Amino acid sequence: MKKFLSGDEAFAEGIRLAKPAIISAYPITPQTIVVERLSEMVESGSLESEFIHVESEHSALSCAMGASAAGVRAFTATSSQGLLYMAECLYYASGGRFPIVMMNANRSTALPWNIYGDQRDSISQLDSGWIQAYAENAQESLDLALMSYYIAEKTATPFMVNLDGFILTHTYEEVDIPDEEQADKFLPEFETDNKLDLENPKNMAFSAGPDYNYIFKFKEHQEMLNAVSVIAESEKKFAEIFGRKYSGLIENYKTEDAEFILRTLGSIAGLCRETADKLRAEGKKIGVVRLRYLRPFPIAELVESVKNAKALGVLEKNISFGSEGTVFTNVNSALHGAKLQVPSYNFIGGLGGRNISQSDIENIFSAIENGAERVNFIGIEVE
Q1: Is 99 helix (H, G, I), strand (E, B) or coil?
Q2: At 132, which helix (H) or strand (E)?
Q3: Under 8 Å CB-to-CB from 359, ≥6 apart: which residues?
Q4: What pTM was computed for the model?
Q5: Which residues contact 46 (CB under 8 A, 6 or more apart)?
Q6: Is 348 exposed, middle or buried (0-12, 13-18, 19+ CB in 10 A)?
Q7: Residue 383 above 70 pLDDT?
Q8: Is 3.40.50.920 the CATH classification of the domain at 250-377?
């Protein structure tokens, strides 16, 4: 069935099909529509779930952890300051190996106060132990809602799906909604041994000294790396059932013969591809790589995609103050590890929701080709 839905509404439809037993909700712009739609589904009976309206984002994730520890599928959602308020709980959830799914509507962080979209909120939490994916459009948002549970539950690792605030969360597109039978075939009922069990008591969320804590963190890291193969497995099964194919951790666009490649993530990727087509029509060998996942980070895939390039750029809606964009740092680490000596340039834009135009992206490709400063703020001249 096809409907005209916003990114938020599409994601809510995906969660309805995943059938979480507990939804812990606290509203925050531009995420609110997700939990509003889910509350309506619970009220109408189209989703059989316990909808719990908590008093804060910290409580929302705490509630989801409690639900997972009780042995049921759980969901929550947030954005910006709400995600930062949850920060303590993010580490509890990953360390406790609770396969919670959370939708984050990417939004600028204060101050100045701003409700529009950039990616500093989620990127600030890359080290929290959560799988992180970044959707480009409403259809991918719905599909990730389903795949995220499959991946989280196979790896015992919580999953954060990120949607660009307003540009994706509030933009309407035609979306194909799978039927319930298809969704049930893809996503099995939730089963876990990592739960409270009165018949078979066990310690959960316990303390560990230096020796054992070290081992727990190593295992957490290993399972994040193992998520790469589970992501591939989930996408293969998804394509067999729903007919839509995804490309793993990254998506390459005309990179095979590209001399100059731009890497980016989120909804801006579509405009980058359009710009690449325009420049290719003018005879330039241009390519685009969209990072679909930042954790686990696609080291091998990124290296393979640019090994023949003359230069590359990273466009991101994020800055690590006093350094450079965090995505850029991760990309350069991958290149350095592979001993690839490719000139790379960082382009910071979209902070606080500031528009990135096609002419901006054309200028970025020109800068990649002709050379630029290591870190560049789009539209700002630095003397």
Answers
A1: coil
A2: strand 131-134
A3: none
A4: 0.97
A5: 16
A6: buried
A7: no
A8: yes
